[in-house]
Each structure stands twice: as C-alpha cells, then as structure tokens.
Write a structure and sequence with these properties.
249 residues; elongated; 17 strands
Length: 249
C-alpha cells in the first residue's frame, strides 16, 4: 500500500499472511474492533504494521503464525472451489472441514471439472504456484464430442483467438479419436478462465469430461474421489523446484 514504511504491510494483509484468515474475513474482524495491535484497537484495514515485530490480538488472544500445511484433494464434479456458493452447491472446503484450518485453493477447477486441487494455508506458496512467470505445467485428461484431427491439434498448439484471449496448449496428444468422440491429454502452463472448454468449443468440439491429473510434478495418482491427503515438505520441494519454503515458526 502506498505510503507504508519499508517492511510494513496493511493489517488485513498481515492477518492473511499469517494464515489465520482470508483478507475479507480479516477486514471484517478489524472493522468490528476485534483486533488490537500492540494493545491498541485498530479499525483501519490499511493500518501499517511490521508482522515480525507487532503483537496482534483477536478478541484479546494473541495471534501467532499458523503452521503451514498443504494438501492435495481429488475434487469431484459438481463441487465448486469458492468458499461459499450463492446457489447452495457444495464447496471443496466442505470436503476438508474436519481439518479446521483456513485453507485456500491453488487455482480453480470449475463446477464440472474433477481432479487434482491443491489446498494450502501458505499464501506465499499459493501465489508462487499461480504466477504465470513460473510456468507450472498442469496436465488434464479431456474427452470431447467429434473427431479431433491433426489439423486441430496443430491449431491448438499454435493458439486460437477467443475474444481478447489467445488460448494455447503447451502440448497435447490424442489418445483415441473417432467421429463420435475423442480423448486427449493436454498440458497448459497458463490457466485462463475455462480455457480448455473454450479452445475446443472454438473448433466445434464440446468438452464432455475434464479431469486434472497433475500439477507440476505432483500427480493425482490413486487418491480416491472426494478424498484428500497431506503433502510433506519433501513432496512440495520435489514437485515444485524453486517454490518458497515455509518460514520457521
């Protein structure tokens, strides 16, 4: 935020970075007078603090950095990745409610897409994984209506204009193709909104099934549908070389 001293961040962002709340929830806490900084109630979400030096309290209880934890979830179709849904549909967070952690989804899978989803309370890791400059490859299994020809494969690799976006596969291969249906493996390094569905629709193919099976070097494997497992620090380091390591508590 403009005007903050070096090493200082807005209070709402500090609470989010500590892994205890989203910025929206942190803002609500602050505006309702529940947050004290060095013994003083602060009602400005933009109030600048040094997270390493400030004593932050919520309802009189000191807030400390949460232990960073990471999970992989096998997301089913029919589940959304938002924290709450206006249509009342189940969310991925309802599948991990037993963890009692404030987790965020790394990237999004739409309602009709299944597969690998990373959940974490480490905002630095989440930002790094979704930053386009890091070019983290995502791998999907795709089924579409109709026959995908070699010409279509070439066009998908070269890039297809859809409005202001250029939709492009990093790589793809056809596993099976007939006049009725085609099955493909597709790799992306930059995930635009509904990119795979849009690129195939631009070529006249409706996507009937879409599943993410890998994110970087992390694979879904045989994790059952709707289940999750915790990732170790070694797994994160092996799957995402160069990713930020969790700070010491």
């Amino acid at each position: 935020m403009k005007g903050l001293r070096a090493g200082y961040v807005p209070l709402e962002r500090a609470l989010s970075k500590l892994g205890v709340a989203s910025r929206t929830q942190a803002r609500e806490w602050i505006l309702t007078g529940r947050v004290r900084v060095n013994g003083i109630v602060r009602k400005s979400p933009g109030f600048g603090i040094s997270p390493e030096k400030a004593i932050i309290e919520l309802d009189g209880k000191r807030i400390v950095r949460a232990l960073f934890r990471n999970f992989v979830l096998h997301k089913p179709r029919g589940v959304v990745t938002t924290r709450a849904d206006e249509k009342g549909r189940p969310t991925v967070f309802s599948l991990v409610s037993e963890l009692d952690l404030h987790l965020i989804a790394v990237g999004r899978l739409d309602w009709a897409t299944s597969g690998l989803l990373i959940l974490t309370n480490d905002t630095r890791l989440a930002d790094w994984l979704t930053d386009p400059k890091n070019k983290i490859r995502r791998t999907y299994l795709v089924s579409v209506r109709g026959e995908v020809t070699e010409k279509s494969v070439t066009l998908l690799k070269q890039g297809i204009k859809d409005g202001e976006d250029t939709l492009q596969a990093d790589d793809l291969s056809v596993r099976k193709s007939s006049q009725k249906e085609s099955h493909l493996i597709i790799h992306l390094t930059e995930g635009k909104n509904r990119e795979i569905r849009r690129m195939f629709l631009a070529l006249g193919h409706e996507v009937t099934k879409l599943k993410r099976v890998a994110y970087g070097r992390l694979e879904l494997g045989d994790l059952p549908l709707g289940k999750f497992r915790e990732l170790t620090a070694d797994e994160i380091a092996a799957a995402f070389p160069g990713a930020p390591t969790p700070p010491h508590p």
